[in-house]
Amino acid sequence: KNEVEQSPQNLTAQEGEFITINCSYSVGISALHWLQQHPGGGIVSLFMLSSGKKKHGRLIATINIQEKHSSLHITASHPRDSAVYICAVRGGADGLTFGKGTHLIIQP
Amino acid sequence: KAGVTQTPRYLIKTRGQQVTLSCSPISGHRSVSWYQQTPGQGLQFLFEYFSETQRNKGNFPGRFSGRQFSNSRSEMNVSTLELGDSALYLCASSLAPAGGSDTQYFGPGTRLTVL
After folding, report:
1. 3-class SS at A81?
2. Can you tell me the mean pLDDT for A70-90?
3. In this complex, do B98 and A94 lie within 8 Å of one another by their Cβ atoms?
4. Cβ(B96)–Cβ(B102) below 8 Å
5. pLDDT single digits (tens) B70-109
6. Is B11 an 8 Å CB contact of chain A?
7. Given CB atoms, is B48 within the 8 Å cutoff of chain A?
8. Contact at 8 Å (CB) between B47 and B54?
9. What residues of chain B lie within 8 A of the CB of A45, using their CB?
């Protein structure tokens, strides 16, 4: 069973700061997902990675398969980025295994 | 294109009762996954269906069951409800089956409260 660890658990930053959230997993995977969950529960899939790096607007996600590690970066952070960010991994045909999430607050 | 819809959005039941939740995927999506989210355990995988077949199942008791219909709509059922079943139940749909490299689109969830 894959173990997924996220850090930090909580992060408060000022608007404009560069944000990094980390995710480590214990067993080889076929894909890693970064999800965003706003208060109220709605979840949005931000990225799905199996190798390398992806960028969407101010968000960048990287993955190092050898080190079993992924990072999510937010550049020029904004209060609307405040949310819970969740890392999830899939190994083969198994269902997703989730991290506990990182609670991010961006203060104006 | 309409997103993933879940009904009902909120539900209150008492211990021992049974509940059925419904999920309608995005048009054309044949894969539906179900997840449970609680404050203590976070998000946990329940089961995944593709083309009416259960592809895999998470570590939940047999009281949790599901099915998928020919139009890809899915239902999950929880029998003999326990207080610990109170949670947000989320479904997600995608084009590809389990293990595929495909984005999952989440519904808004059904918040179940068991009294």
Report:
1. helix
2. 96
3. yes
4. yes
5. 999 999 999 999 999 999 999 999 987 655 557 889 999 9
6. no
7. yes
8. yes
9. 103-106
